[in-house]
Write a structure and sequence with these properties.
Layout lengths: L9 H15 L3 H13 L3 H8 L3 H4 L7 H14 L10 H19 L4 H5 L11 H20 L6
């Protein structure tokens, strides 16, 4: 679990994630997961590989925003007890995931990729991919920081 306050660096982490997408062609899920990986003790290459199918709203289906999926992966890394504690941490991980999804949706008006991008919808875009990446990183960083606070540590 991270020992530092990620919220103090959330702008830097968000900029790193946006740059991964713009400069290296990462999808939104990869950008979020890989930008946060070093901060949460996750292997960056594993995050890249595991999040690859979540881009484009899950394999191009334009469903759940990939940036949210990348954040969910990071939350699992800091919250799950792994196979050693199988099933004992799932409830907490689900709670943190719900918070991310709800906060992201409230901020952006949707959690669905095609609605956010305005593709195939009656309305224009609600939020750009870089904006979604920034929001997902910042919200995830806030949740992780709170989760790792001494009063919340298990």
């Amino acid at each position: 679990m991270p020992s530092c306050d990620l919220t103090t660096r959330s702008d830097e982490l968000a900029a790193r994630a946006v740059a991964l997408r713009a400069e290296r062609g990462y999808n939104c899920a990869q950008a979020v997961a890989c930008a946060l990986a070093p901060e949460i003790g996750a292997d960056t290459e594993a995050c890249y590989v595991l999040s690859e199918g979540f881009g484009g709203g899950m394999g191009g289906h334009t469903e759940t925003c990939g940036a949210i999926s990348g954040g969910v992966m990071a939350l699992g890394q800091v919250s799950s007890g792994g196979t050693a504690l199988s099933g004992t941490t799932k409830k907490r991980t689900y709670e943190l995931t719900r918070e991310l999804v709800e906060r992201f949706g409230a901020k952006n008006g949707s959690t669905i990729c095609c609605e956010l991008k305005g593709t195939g919808c009656e309305h224009g875009p609600l939020r750009s991919c870089p904006g979604c990446i920034e929001d997902a990183v910042k919200i995830t960083a806030e949740i992780i920081t709170r989760q790792s606070a001494p009063e919340n540590a298990a």
